[in-house]
Amino acid sequence: MSLTFHPVCWRIASLAHDPTWISQGQIASGAGLGANLWLTVDYLTLTPHNKISGLYDCEPSSADPLTQALLISANKCDIAELTHPLSTTIHFADLNGDGRTEYLYVDGSGGVTAFLNLGGPDNGPNAARISWLPQGVIASGVGANRSSVRFGDLNGDGRAEYIYVNTDGSVEAYLNLGGPDNGANAAKVSCLPQGTIATGVGQGRDNVVVADINGDRRADYLASSRTDGSTMA
């Protein structure tokens, strides 16, 4: 199955101070898996809280995808829903260590569907017009909200680990053991539980990012303030 992603991709043609970008058009369709942005809580119903004051409580249920209708809604609970952080279903991370990032879709339970990056048709102006090979569900998830899932190479072997961030900012990791071959199944990776690898720094789940900030090829734990952008590493 071929994949073409809705956002337009631009390829850097030069590493000079002022890089040149070459449009690559759509490179992935999303494969019909669903919306990318989801709200982390869904307020569907207004329940009378105090009949005298007229105040209402909003009862949360499962998360909603972000839609135009939700953005323009005047419903009090829809407005309350939009105050919560967004989570994303689409991630890009290198699973097989070939230096190319795979297309990853994370479902509502933290399960991951992967598409192996086969590269572009040439190493020139079309290099980012990627072909994708479906790998199916490569991780069943841990029953977590998709907003808990991160990907990052923790041990520097070039393969991204599956990382689960708890609501208190603590982190559990699953070591990427690689796929069964270096060909058509390269992104069908196996994962080995590592338990809790970070206890957190007092920042919640939505503040936590994993990224390599010192160039040693190992992802670091970062906690950024949502109010002023200050970051602890």
TrEMBL record:
Pfam families reported for this sequence: FG-GAP_3 (PF13517)
InterPro entries found in the cross-reference section: FG-GAP (IPR013517), Integrin_alpha_N (IPR028994)
Keywords: Signal
Superkingdom to which the source organism belongs: Eukaryota
The protein's name in its UniProt record: Integrin alpha N-terminal domain-containing protein
Native organism: Hyaloscypha bicolor E
Lineage: Eukaryota, Fungi, Dikarya, Ascomycota, Pezizomycotina
